[in-house]
Amino acid sequence: MRTARTHRAVCLPLTLVLALAGCGSALQTNYYTLASGADPRPAAVAQPASSPIGVTVGPVTLPDVVDRPNLVVRTAENQVTLLDQHRWAEPLKREIPRVLAGHLSRLLGTPRVSVFPNGAGGPGDVRVRVDVQRFESVPGQEALLEVFWTVMPPAGEPRAGRWTVRVPVAGPGYDALVAAHGVALERLGEELAAQIRERRSAS
Hints:
Largest sheet: 5 strands, mixed
Structural class: alpha/beta
Shape: elongated
């Protein structure tokens, strides 16, 4: 009996130590955002203050495979991995149009850029819709963004096109991968701004 009691006395503290060790080794969840803060580059073209252009961005659609909180990385030609400890700080369907709106506001030199549906825009606004075809992440290699965009002016025919960019990843970490996606969105903003300026000058 004494042997059994001694065995239980030794096992109980050992079980407690193992439980505490398990709690201490819980993996931390990291959250990422596509917004990079203040953009140091100047606006490409400033519109006259008397007639600022109005733009409404959205909706933005995404493939179901990446429309989720987890970062989704490509690990093989026909295989992706969902990362439980690496997640987006907000849904991509909300963050992508918000980030694009910030780029367009800077590039077009206008504060009148809203995000659909929170800002429905005015009757004279240009409407920008983005259908993301591919939003692929290859750690340590590249971020790929392929979209089908539509620019709808307040008058005249809309213009649509397909646009693709591959941005090399500058480092091995997931933060570098997310930063590459941020650069891809900046370049998409430049493409959309050029299309908006062209449509406005033609109208």
